[in-house]
């Protein structure tokens, strides 16, 4: 794994409150060359670290970090889940001739509230108010009327954005487009916007939206997908690198 890829891995570890430890061995073929590991903020080993240094491969660390976010959906959005009640212990009856007390009737506890279900689908007009909130969180100013107008136009071209809904509440959005360009033999796919609500982050929703967008563009015949990310969004850069995206160019823009 190259240095930029290891840097992205380190950024992914930091986003989860962990630290990536790299081997100091620089000679290929020697033991521990290219090995990495994870520790917590206090330096306590979490994965692939012993007294002599890191022992894990970058792929093992990457797989661990990818699966680390698979937590209960309800916890991320303050959705209460009732604790499981233990069965009361039966008291031992005294060995005498007294009349035993009647056993209390067992009351069944209410069933636990089911965890929220995540669904990826196309955006619809009724999502407009929530999409305005997400777009504002992304840093763009737009009103509900403009969002509804854009949804109508994108519906005609078959390029409606994808949304992630959790118990029918939209918590993420991914804009998807594809077009024919003169210098490529296949349509060019593009992720035009990607945002996940703050409380729903760190649970893999962004990754699922990107994967769904890639599948749609693949079905449209695209051989390449590109995405633009603001220079100041370093965490987003690490996220895209983690999903296999590479920096290929610098974008220029001019207001008209």
Structure overview:
The chain is an alpha+beta fold and 256 residues long. The chain folds into 2 domains: 3-68, no CATH class; 118-242, Gcn5-related N-acetyltransferase (GNAT) (Aminopeptidase), CATH 3.40.630.30. Helices cover 30% and strands 19% of the residues. It has helices spanning 3-15, 58-68, 73-76, 128-138, 144-157, 205-219, 234-242, and strands at residues 19-22, 36-39, 45-47, 49-50, 53-54, 118-122, 162-166, 169-179, 188-196, 224-227. Strands 6-7-8-9-10 form a 5-stranded mixed sheet. Helix 6 (205-219) links the parallel strand 9 (188-196) and strand 10 (224-227).
Summarize the topology.
Layout: H1 3-15, E1 19-22, E2 36-39, E3 45-47, E4 49-50, E5 53-54, H2 58-68, H3 73-76, E6 118-122, H4 128-138, H5 144-157, E7 162-166, E8 169-179, E9 188-196, H6 205-219, E10 224-227, H7 234-242
Parallel strand pairs: 9-10
Antiparallel strand pairs: 1-2, 2-3, 4-5, 6-7, 7-8, 8-9
Helix pairs in contact: 1-2, 1-7, 4-5
Mean pLDDT: 84
The largest sheet is:
5 strands, mixed
Number of helices: 7
Euclidean distance between termini CA atoms: 43 Å
The helix fraction, in percent, is: 25-40%
CATH hierarchy: architecture of the largest domain: 3-Layer(aba) Sandwich
Work out the radius of gyration.
26 Å
Instruction: Tell me what portion of residues adopts beta-strand conformation.
Output: 15-25%
Structural class, by secondary structure, is alpha+beta
Number of strands: 10
Tell me the strand order in the biggest sheet.
Answer: 6-7-8-9-10
């Amino acid at each position: 794994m190259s240095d930029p890829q290891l840097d992205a891995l380190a950024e992914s570890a930091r986003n989860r409150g962990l630290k990536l430890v790299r081997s100091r061995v620089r000679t290929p073929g020697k033991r521990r060359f290219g090995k990495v590991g994870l520790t917590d903020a206090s330096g306590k080993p979490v994965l692939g670290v012993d007294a002599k240094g890191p022992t894990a491969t970058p792929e093992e660390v990457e797989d661990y970090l990818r699966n680390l976010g698979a937590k209960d959906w309800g916890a991320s959005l303050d959705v209460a889940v009732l604790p499981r009640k233990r069965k009361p212990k039966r008291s031992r009856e005294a060995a005498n001739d007294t009349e035993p007390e009647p056993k209390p009737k067992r009351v069944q506890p209410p069933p636990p509230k089911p965890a929220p279900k995540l669904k990826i689908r196309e955006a619809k007009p009724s999502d407009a108010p929530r999409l305005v909130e997400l777009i504002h969180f992304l840093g763009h100013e737009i009103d509900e009327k403009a969002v509804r107008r854009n949804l109508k136009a994108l519906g005609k071209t078959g390029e409606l954005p994808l949304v992630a809904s959790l118990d029918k509440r939209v918590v993420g959005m991914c804009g998807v487009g594809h077009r024919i360009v003169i210098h490529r033999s296949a349509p060019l796919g593009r992720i035009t916007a990607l945002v996940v609500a703050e409380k729903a982050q760190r649970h893999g929703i962004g990754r699922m939206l990107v994967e769904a967008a890639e599948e749609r563009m693949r079905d449209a015949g695209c051989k390449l997908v590109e995405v633009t990310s603001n220079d100041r969004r370093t965490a987003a850069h690490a996220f895209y690198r983690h999903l296999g995206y590479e920096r290929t160019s610098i974008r220029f823009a001019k207001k008209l």
